[in-house]
Specification:
single chain; 627 residues; alpha+beta; Elongation Factor Tu (Ef-tu), domain 3; Arc Repressor Mutant, subunit A; DNA polymerase, domain 1; 21 helices; binds flavin-adenine dinucleotide
Length: 627
């Protein structure tokens, strides 16, 4: 082998780019091998980043020192904070991105990261050292016959492994439209005893703006005061936002789509892989909600310098002529030209219960999996896993303790724990409902939760860490000021009445007034001179004010969740020995013995989350290990 690196990352998608930049920035000589260098971090589907629970993940990636938030901010064309009208735990940032700029920004980062090298080729084989007790990764072999030696491999091959695309009765090999599939890697892993499965996903048509009648469509603007993902001071919120649009299907459109059902690869048995429940195709929606005569669709620009639009909600693998006829019956699309048809893709994934929490495989030392190959769907879920795999590949190589995030620390912790503990039976996407501590895991406090860790391991710059400390101090000082400052009867009555709150019957501290649900610190500052002066003199920005307000309003809920999280920690701290023989414990149910032997939890906390392991089984294990 003439080429030798510390870490090889297979695939420059969303997981691979995060993995490679993290490992390289931490100091590992890293090679990022990808099939096509022109398509780095390509947005295979929706040109958007974030959304419900996914936006929280992007903030966490940024807080830990990953790149997705910066790239999204730099390529954003519209920004919205979803769920603003709900509680702070539900606020979810989402940006429509210029997909070409997104990809260019990533390539710029990859090409300019110290210790990181790019190689365009397809990996066809992973090489193992089988001389020890347990297989250990030792390199990769590419389609051009090049063998590359390395200490760690991170596999992030996305939808490419044995990829097969479908549109109506036509099927073709491919990793996504316009890209070749990747062969060899699955076989190489199956030989060692890995299990694989098939999943599927789909994408909608892309439309030519010149042929759309925008006057007939409902406009959806971005936020009037857009925010951003990254906590870095050198990124900015988007300006000159572009609008999105809403369109609707109709009974006529549905009738046309139904004429293609007998030729749908989804319904006629051609596609075997399981699709994403929460990103269904339009044909799936017609079957599941048969009584609905209308579905809302979103028309989203793919960039600033292109006429291409993405039709969100119209994912389909029906025959192209059926997609086309249905489209032309949607108001505004009467003369529409289609750039690319919708299609579905089937690909190999590896059930993630074969992984440790570090994302290293249990079967092979030094081999990590991240992204869609683990049965997830979505750029954000992929990027988060890539970041953790890159960090851990580097740290294990240096003999440093690997990083595992808890379920009460980050959505990333929930994601990985769900994957390795529960496995997947359909493409996994993140939701706020998957997190039991979602009041702790808010988008606004990702920096407080994760930046100190990112700084400690060397991914977060001194400047970013200092900014966090300054922000924390400013928030604490503002809260103290609100606690110490009184409001007299009658002083702010007209404001309180205007927001639907009762006037004061006695003097109160500002802090107690902020506790009222319709009061905001920002509004209060307009009617309370001392507060306004404090904010101006201390140059407090929106983030500090918002943070103080959330901490005041949600204090009770936050403390309660912390209490439950602490209780759970007690179980997390009880370790189960690596080779413990669960089958020998007759007092466990047979189902529990089977599941525990398969997943091999490392703590009692993890064991308690395995489906099929009951509280009674946990009590048995508590008696055994709890002492
Ligand atoms: C048709 C389609 C529809 C989709 N629809 C949705 C959707 O509705 N919702 C959603 O959330 N997500 C959807 N996705 C999935 C989304 O694209 C992925 O979740 C995300 O891109 C996964 O990131 P990743 O880094 O794991 O893989 P990818 O972004 O797929 O990147 C994989 C990279 O690895 C490279 N590669 C693969 N094999 C090799 C090899 N052997 N050697 C070298 N390089 C290799 C590829 O060239 C590519 O650059 C869709 C994807 C496709 C293709």
């Amino acid at each position: 082998m003439i080429l030798s690196y510390d870490v090889v990352v297979i695939g420059a998608g969303h997981a691979g780019c995060e993995a490679a930049t993290a490992a390289a920035r931490l100091g590992s000589r890293t090679l990022l091998i990808t099939i096509d260098m022109e398509k780095i971090a390509s947005m295979s589907c929706n040109p958007a980043v974030g959304g419900v629970a996914k936006g929280q993940i992007v903030r966490e990636i940024d807080a830990l020192g990953g790149m997705m938030g910066r790239v999204a901010d730099r390529s954003a064309i519209q920004f919205r904070m979803l769920n603003r009208s709900k509680g702070a735990a539900m606020w979810s940032p989402r940006a429509q991105c210029d997909k070409h700029k997104f990809s260019r920004e990533w390539r710029h980062i990859v090409e300019n990261t110290k210790n990181l090298y790019l190689w365009q080729d397809s990996v066809v084989d992973i090489l193992f050292d089988l001389s020890g007790e347990k297989p250990r990764v030792k390199g990769v072999k590419t389609r051009m016959g090049v063998e590359i030696e390395c200490g760690r491999v991170v596999l992030t091959a996305g939808t490419f492994l044995e990829g097969m695309m479908h549109c109506g009765e036509a099927s073709a090999e491919g990793g996504r439209a316009g890209d070749q599939a990747a062969h060899g890697v699955t076989t190489s892993l199956l030989k060692l005893g890995f299990e694989s499965g098939r999943m599927k996903t789909g994408t909608p048509v892309r439309l030519d703006a010149r042929t759309i009648n925008f006057d007939a469509l409902e406009v959806q603007e971005g936020d009037a005061e857009p925010s951003k993902f990254s906590y870095d001071a050198d990124t900015e919120a988007v300006s000159n936002q572009l609008p999105c649009f809403m369109v609707y299907t109709s009974k006529r459109v549905h009738d046309i789509l139904r004429t293609g059902f007998d030729r749908s690869p989804l319904f006629n048995g051609t596609i075997h892989g399981i699709g994403p429940r929460y990103c269904p195709s339009i044909e799936d929606k017609l079957r599941t909600f048969a009584d609905k005569d209308q579905h809302q669709l979103f028309l989203e620009p793919e960039g600033r310098d292109t006429n291409e639009y993405y039709l969100n909600g119209f994912s389909s693998s029906l025959p192209f002529e059926v997609q086309m006829e249905a489209l032309r019956n949607i108001v505004g699309f009467e003369d529409v030209h289609v750039y690319r048809p919708g299609y579905a893709i089937e690909y190999d994934y590896f059930p993630p219960t074969q992984l440790k929490h570090t994302l290293e495989t249990k079967l092979v030392d030094g081999l990590y999996f991240a992204g869609q190959v683990n049965g997830t769907t979505g750029y954000e879920e992929a990027a988060a896993q890539g970041l953790m795999a890159g960090i851990n590949a580097h740290r294990s190589l240096c003999g440093e303790e690997e990083v595992v995030l808890g379920r009460d620390e980050a959505y990333i912790g929930v994601l990985i724990d769900d994957l390795v503990t529960k496995g997947v039976d359909e493409p996994y996407r993140m939701f706020t409902s998957r997190a039991e501590y979602r009041i702790l895991l808010r988008q606004d406090n990702a920096d407080q939760r994760l930046t100190p860790l990112g700084h400690k391991i060397g991914l977060v710059s001194e400047e970013k860490y200092e900014n966090l400390l300054k922000k924390n101090t400013a928030v604490e000082s503002l809260i103290s000021m609100l606690r110490a400052t009184s409001v007299k009867i009658g002083e702010i009555d007209s404001y309180l009445i205007s927001v639907g709150e009762e006037p004061l019957t006695q003097g109160k501290k500002l802090y107690d007034i902020v506790l009222r649900s319709n009061v905001t610190i920002f509004d209060l500052s307009r009617v309370h001179k001392k507060l306004a002066k404090y904010i101006t003199e201390n140059n407090l920005d929106k983030e500090v004010i918002e943070q103080a307000e959330i901490q005041i309003k949600y204090r009770g809920y936050i403390e309660r969740e912390r209490y439950y999280a602490e209780k759970m920690h007690r179980l997390e701290n009880i370790a189960i020995p690596e080779n413990f023989d669960f089958n020998a414990m007759q007092s466990l149910t047979i189902e529990a013995r089977q599941k525990l032997s398969r997943i091999r939890p490392t703590t009692l906390g993890q064991a308690s989350r395995i489906p099929g392991v009951s509280p009674a089984d946990i009590n048995v294990l508590l008696v055994k290990f709890g002492r």
